[in-house]
Write a structure and sequence with these properties.
alpha+beta, TATA-Binding Protein, Endonuclease III, domain 1, 6-stranded antiparallel beta sheet, two-stranded antiparallel ribbon
Length: 284
């Protein structure tokens, strides 16, 4: 991947290691808008990136370009990661080829926790709508029509009734309880980061509205723990591409983690992307 970093801009010559559409549209992030066919606006906490792209080049512009250099994980060699995954399981190469421009974003932890609680039993359009309304009403204005994701302090003022009005439904009480928990020293971010993946998962599961799949998504997309494998309907179908024995979601996750180890999160995204785009081509 050819990359040129300037003061307020990153220019990436597209190849098989970076695809902005695959990266943003694969279900790992919800706080972005698409003003035109060849542009995105990404909002992470109170930071904004304007992205334009064509078949050969992606341009990321921001007043905090270092933040988005890290956010898009541009210092990681994904070509090496894909080679490692294929060396572990050569049969998976077929599936990598359809989403090999995906990069796992390094998202804000609080924003990720709230976003994935909202995502439970929900669809992407509704998730984005709820989060957009939440930011518009309670976040700080960044520019015309664009608002920062609310801080923990701002979120602490949002009631269950407010969340219900925004469309969060039964998740409303969960959100209030979790935000109250996150304000305590028991959930200090630096403390959470210090925990092993197993201990951190246990801690996340103690939050209201966080089940196993949501916990693993938070681990992967918020804490950058790539030794997890979130399981949903699509991953269950993916499992049956390789095995026919029926397993619980926990055992399916363990099945993949035992194969891919610290590359599990990357493999999950490649396989998930393949399934959501090609499931009709497979029989189960």
């Amino acid at each position: 991947m050819k990359l040129q970093k300037e003061k307020n801009k990153i220019v990436i010559t597209n190849d098989l290691d970076f695809n902005i559409i695959q990266t943003l549209e694969c279900g790992q992030v919800f706080s972005f808008i698409k003003p035109s066919d060849n542009s995105y606006v990404v909002i992470s906490t109170n930071k904004i990136a304007n992205i334009t792209y064509d078949d050969s080049t992606t341009i990321i512009e921001s007043n905090d370009i270092d933040y988005f250099y890290n956010y898009f994980d541009l210092n990681t060699d994904y070509n090496k990661i894909k080679k490692e995954i294929i060396s572990i399981n050569p049969n998976v190469s077929k599936y990598l080829g359809f989403g090999d421009g995906i990069r796992i974003l390094k998202q804000d932890i609080y924003q990720t926790i709230i976003s994935f609680i909202v995502s439970a039993n929900n669809n992407i359009k509704r998730i984005k709508g709820i989060l957009f309304r939440l930011s518009s009403e309670y976040g700080s204005k960044i520019s015309e029509g664009i608002y920062a994701f609310p801080t923990l302090e701002q979120l602490s003022k949002v009631t269950s009734e407010d969340y219900a009005r925004l469309g969060a439904g039964y998740r409303s009480d969960y959100l209030v309880k979790t935000i109250n928990s996150l304000k305590t020293t028991e959930y200090d971010i630096n403390f959470l980061k210090s925990l092993s993946t197993i201990k951190l998962r246990e801690k996340l599961l103690s939050l209201s509205g966080v089940g196993p799949k949501v916990a693993d998504c938070i681990l992967l997309f918020g804490f950058g723990r790539t030794d997890v494998f979130p399981v949903d309907t699509w991953i269950r179908k993916t499992y049956y591409l390789f095995e026919q024995k029926k397993l619980s979601d926990k055992d399916i996750s363990n099945y993949f983690v035992n194969i891919y180890g610290t590359y599990s999160g990357y493999a999950q995204q490649y396989l998930f992307n393949y399934m959501i785009n090609h499931s009709k081509e497979e029989s189960f």
